[in-house]
Specification:
Strand content of chain A: under 5%
Distance between the termini of chain B: 59 Å
Number of strands of chain A: 0
Oligomer: heterodimer
Number of strands of chain B: 26
Helix content of chain B: 25-40%
Number of helices of chain A: 11
Order of helices and strands of chain A: HHHHHHHHHHH
Largest sheet of chain A: none
Number of helices of chain B: 12
Largest sheet of chain B: 5 strands, antiparallel
Structural class of chain B: alpha+beta
Largest interface: A-B, 24 and 28 residues
């Protein structure tokens, strides 16, 4: 198990560094130069984070390994596919959360309580991180069977767009039941983008629904991987 | 010669498809648009190919170069061609030449057609001189990328990164000014345009030669970059950061913030009046009640500037007519008004009711001595007549008030709070200004009794013009084709004519348009520093641009200050300024006055 973790870390750590540097640098440049309002800048950084990081992380785990031809060798090792997927998932979650945390630290240090309340800034980053983590699980599970990184990226983008539509259903028609919006991880940031007149789904409800969905998706993904090994 | 001819034939056969595609996009699509325009509105065939060429010409050249190189550098095909009795250098030089000819043709021919069909715009004429060199440089960068990487998708991404660097790096690295592509789009407005174009052409030609040499050497000596994920991600990420850093360098706030005064959530500064020591800040707040009805709450705060900094007094909510008084006052110079000499608490406005037969009304606001209420009265001036395009001009001089619209109404304001109509006669005035910041003469309206200076102020009393009598400077803002500011200095004023000489012109760059504020809402000038305040409804991207009119580059931005909700600027005598938005800031002058 430790060797598996070391192997995944060795292969993916550059992405963690890349994502952290780029996202934190964007936040630093934007907030330092005050090219945009602080709230707008933070929202842009969060948007880039939760839209690009899950795609970057999910496509580089299983599809990339399959296109490189090393997945079969990995699955032939005396390690259950479930464990392999668990390690990959953990690394993927780190790839998503790490850059967001780095950007949040930079933003708080530079512009906390300047134009934007510190608590509001932290909450925005936290909600964006939850969105990104949920999106990662969706994308990883749905792209696990694809043979190449490019196709996985295309599908992941499609998943993002579809989930955005689902999350915005209530914005277009407030009669849509709240459970529909809770199906999409983008509901975590409903309060940020939506009109105050349209109530957001409760946070705990979204967390509960997303955890349930994540459990189902992850189980399905591990079975897909195991079937691929067989 | 036979060998060259064969190579030429081969390359032409393989690459000509790009010529047809390029001409179809850059010439065919604009022609379709021109035909549509002819039948729908203009009744004259015009094409506008230049936007397409300027935006996508470089990308097209890049794709041609990548396709041309990577096609024959695939494993197997490359070895086949190397086994032929053809020199590698000759082979690739022919590739380069054919691809370059196609790229330049696709970029230049549509511009020539647009020029010939009548759009003899000076910028387009100059673009015909520098565009081929830009195209050659971008093509050469992609050519080198293709020779080094040999995989089309990866080479295209690296070439795209190179393209973005060529466009944006010169903006932040001053020694690279000669290859500043963004500056070429308004080179006609600059002094020494020919020298700038020649320098640009030489710079781009130099880039093209270096990249060509690199590409040829890469093929000759079998150099290759193993382009993996890290290189692609790194290249794209690095370019993204460089572009953003460029924008931050150009547009970032560089006015030193000396003090920030927080306002309650939702309150925004609407206007600041300050005499150097004391003043008043007017704030507005949009309030929504339980029934969803919106209203604006206006508050006043006293403003004191002490050695310790700004001190704001307690807020005082104003309602009714008093709110209307300060609301009008907060509209600043956008609403023409006049104040009787020696009575700053009285002002007059003229308005047209277009729905009621073009009735013109004079409104008189008079703030009571204890500032607790305002008296308001209205006088109907005229109705009927031709539709008035603009709000009437209004000027006060001595004990006379003049309202100039389709008629000229003259009032006796010996008692400022009760203007008495003396006469109302037919009137017509249609001033003409200069174009493109050239010198011009402005005919003054014929208003008996109003001095030339007052008539000049009346003539320039329009939403887009700002005349600063203390500096004798006239500024104009325009949002046609992007935000623009032009400035002139009054050189001669006679009884009938005012002559203005140009100071300069500013047109927002691509980056400023991408990140910048909306059009200029108002301008204020003090001590040679011109502050352009953005349209405040764009709360997200909102910054003040400061121009130094006394330097060698008068209408080049000397300072920026960005913050949400900026709506008011009040320059102070010592070079500092008060800027009001969702907070109140005391800022210093721009760091370098030219």
């Amino acid at each position: 198990m430790r060797k598996l973790i070391w192997k995944e870390w060795n292969e993916q750590s550059w992405k963690l560094a890349f994502g952290s540097v780029v996202l934190a640098a964007l936040a630093f440049i934007g907030l330092r130069s005050r090219i945009l309002a602080d709230e707008t800048m933070v929202m842009w950084v969060c948007f880039l984070g939760f839209s690009l990081l899950p795609i970057l992380a999910s496509t580089g785990l299983v599809p990339a390994e399959r296109s490189d031809g090393t997945l079969e060798a990995l699955l032939s090792l005396p390690v259950t596919p479930r464990r392999i997927l668990a390690v990959k998932t953990a690394i993927g979650l780190l790839l998503v959360a790490g850059p967001m945390i780095a950007a949040a630290i930079v933003s708080v240090a530079l512009a906390g309580n300047r134009e934007m309340d510190l608590a509001a800034m932290v909450i925005l980053y936290a909600r964006s991180m939850l969105t990104a983590l949920s999106l990662f699980i969706w994308m990883m599970a749905l792209t696990i069977r694809l043979p190449s990184e490019a196709r996985a990226a295309m599908l992941a983008l499609g998943v993002l767009i579809l989930l955005a539509f689902i999350a915005s259903a209530r914005l277009v028609n407030p009669q849509v039941p709240m459970i529909v919006a809770e199906l999409s991880p983008l509901s975590f940031i409903h309060d940020v983008v939506a009109d105050q007149k349209i109530p957001a789904p409760p946070l705990l409800a979204i967390v509960g629904v997303q955890l349930g969905i994540a459990a189902v998706l992850w189980t399905w993904a591990s079975r897909s991987l195991a079937n691929g090994a067989n | 010669m036979g060998q060259l001819k064969s190579l030429l034939w081969k390359e032409w056969r393989e690459t000509r498809i790009f010529l047809w595609i390029g001409l179809g996009i850059f010439l065919g699509l604009p022609c379709v648009g021109g035909l549509e325009n002819t039948f729908q509105s203009a009744h004259r065939f015009d094409i506008f190919a230049s936007p397409w060429v300027f935006m996508f010409g470089g990308v097209f050249a890049m794709f041609v170069a990548v396709a041309t190189t990577c096609r024959d550098l695939v494993i197997g095909i490359e070895e086949f061609w190397r086994s032929r009795p053809v020199g590698v250098v000759r082979w690739f030089l022919m590739k380069y030449a054919v691809g370059l000819a196609i790229s330049v043709t696709v970029c230049v021919v549509p511009l020539v057609v647009e020029w010939m069909l009548g759009s003899r715009d000076s910028e387009l004429t100059l673009a015909l001189a520098w565009m081929p060199f830009l195209c050659a440089a971008l093509y050469s960068v992609a050519f080198a990328a293709g020779c080094l990487i040999r995989r089309p998708a990866h080479a295209a991404m690296l070439a795209l990164a190179g393209l973005l660097l060529i466009y944006f790096l010169p903006l932040v690295v001053p020694p690279l000014w000669i290859v500043n592509t963004m500056a070429m789009f308004d080179v006609g407005f600059r002094d020494g345009a020919v020298f700038i174009i020649v320098s640009f052409a030489l710079g781009m030609a130099g880039i093209a030669v270096v990249m060509l040499a690199l590409g040829i050497a890469a093929v000759r000596y079998r150099w290759r970059i193993d382009a993996g994920r890290r290189l692609m991600y790194g290249a794209v990420g690095a370019v993204l950061l460089i572009i953003f850093a460029t924008a931050g360098y150009q547009l970032g706030t560089n006015l030193p913030v000396l003090q920030e005064v927080h306002l309650p959530d939702g309150e925004t500064v609407a206007n600041i009046r300050f005499d150097g020591q004391r003043g008043t800040v007017v704030t507005t707040q949009l309030v929504v009640d339980d029934l969803g009805r919106e209203s604006i709450v206006i508050r006043l705060r006293s403003l004191d500037l002490t050695p310790a900094g700004i001190q704001l007094g307690e807020p005082r909510k104003v309602v009714g007519r008093l709110a209307g008084y300060y609301w009008n006052w907060a509209q600043k110079e956008r609403v023409p008004r006049a104040t009787p000499p020696g009575n700053p608490d009285v002002f007059y406005t003229a308005s047209i009711d277009w729905w009621a037969d073009n009735e013109c009304w004079l409104g008189t606001y008079s703030l009571r001595a204890d500032k607790s209420a305002v008296d308001y009265s209205e006088i109907k001036l005229w109705s009927g007549g031709p539709a008035e395009v603009r709000t009437p001009r209004i000027q006060a001089s001595g004990d006379r008030l003049y309202v100039m619209g389709s008629q000229l109404a003259t009032f006796d304001i010996t008692n400022p709070t009760a203007p008495r109509l003396i006469s109302c006669v037919a009137f017509s005035f249609h001033p003409r200004y200069g174009a493109d910041a050239t010198a011009f003469s402005l005919t003054l309206p014929g208003v008996p009794g109003l001095p030339a200076e007052g008539r000049l102020r009346a003539a320039t009393q329009t939403p887009d013009d700002y005349y600063f009598p203390d500096d004798r400077v006239l500024c104009e803002d325009s949002d046609a084709g992007g935000s623009q500011v032009a400035a002139w200095r009054l050189s001669k004023l006679t009884d009938n004519v005012a002559v203005f000489q140009p100071i300069g012109q500013w047109k927002e760059t691509f980056l400023e348009e991408l990140f910048g504020a909306e059009t200029v809402e108002s301008m204020t000038l003090r001590d040679g520093l011109l502050y352009a305040v953005p349209w405040h409804h764009s709360a997200a991207k909102n910054f003040v641009t400061v121009f130094d009119l006394r330097g060698p580059h008068p209408l080049s931005p000397a300072g920026h200050f960005g913050a949400p909700g900026i709506s008011a600027v009040c320059p102070l005598p010592d070079g500092r300024a008060l800027i009001g938005g969702n907070q109140l800031w005391l800022v210093g002058p721009p760091p370098t006055r030219h």
